[in-house]
TrEMBL record:
Belongs to the ABC transporter superfamily. This is Manganese transport system ATP-binding protein. One of its GO terms (molecular function) is ATP hydrolysis activity. The keyword Oxidoreductase does not apply.
Length: 253
């Protein structure tokens, strides 16, 4: 658990030479990446470029064939146990019919902090209430999670990460199928979290919004094609490489 005395960790996420296969499919090829605390990093790349695999590897849900992942200097499993890392999965990987209310979902963020009785205490309920307020969902707290719009669902999962107190947050396409208001709310929250020292890695297809969202960007295509400030990474020659588009506008792909 972090305390005010904990020294500032500059390498919140440290990925070194990570390669992942699914059977014969090479999903990540020798990926190395370090992310400093207090930053939002935008992860971009076409479908199938390995974004979700990278998230799962950082979470320790997939073990790489080669290479290492460190979160706050320790293993992903340790970071998960300490509730130091929060994850908003891609929507397709969530069972929306599951009979949980929005509040229940956010409360799952507190499970790592519950005492031996496993019963939520006042501090847990307070953290959940505050998180719901921050994502603008207090009024919908009792609703079944599947009965929310796409954007509201995403906000519920962001609230879970906030209630958890995670200082490292991974968000896999939080803006996909999301209304403008939810996108703006989530963007503002992520910026606020980074301003207080959190580390945020967020995949997105919304390239126009990237400069506003992210301090830096990573262009993935099984390996890291480009990395830097969003303006640099979004240069036409990089996009041409990653998205198979011609560098000059107006030319057919
Ligand atoms: P992205 O999130 O960028 O769309 P993914 O990480 O989901 O990319 O996928 C990367 C590659 O790995 C793709 O070729 C995809 O088909 C493959 N892949 C992803 N998950 C699995 C899986 N569970 N089994 C087999 N192949 C997978
Ligand atoms: Mg994906």
């Amino acid at each position: 658990m972090t305390s005010p005395k904990t020294p500032k960790i500059t390498r919140a996420i440290d990925i070194d030479g990570v390669t992942v296969h699914y059977g014969d499919v090479l999903a990540l090829d020798n990926v190395s990446l370090t992310l400093a605390s207090g930053t939002v990093c935008g992860l971009i790349g076409v479908n199938g470029s390995g974004k979700s695999t990278l998230f799962k590897t950082i979470m320790g849900l997939i073990r790489p064939d080669t290479g290492t992942v460190r979160v706050n200097g320790g293993s992903p499993a340790l970071a998960r146990r300490d509730s130091a890392i929060g994850y908003v999965p891609q929507s397709e990987n969530v069972d929306w019919a599951f009979p949980m209310s929005v509040r229940d979902v956010v409360l799952t963020g507190r499970y790592g902090k519950l005492g031996f009785t496993r019963r939520p205490r006042r501090a847990d309920h307070t953290a959940v209430d505050e998180a719901l307020e921050r994502v603008d969902l207090a009024e919908l707290a009792g609703r079944q999670i599947g009965r929310l719009s796409g954007g509201q669902r995403k906000r519920a999962f962001v609230a879970r990460g906030i209630a958890q107190g995670a200082r490292v947050l991974l968000l896999d396409e939080p803006f996909a199928g999301v209304d403008k208001r939810s996108e703006a709310t989530i963007t503002r929250l992520l910026r606020e979290l980074a301003a207080t020292g959190a580390t945020v890695l967020v995949s997105t297809h919304d390239l126009h919004a990237l400069p506003e969202l992210a301090d830096e960007a990573v262009l993935l295509m099984r390996s890291v094609l480009a990395r830097g400030n969003p303006g640099e990474v979004l240069r036409p020659e990089n996009l041409a490489l990653a998205f198979g588009m011609r560098a000059r506008e107006g030319e057919p792909a």
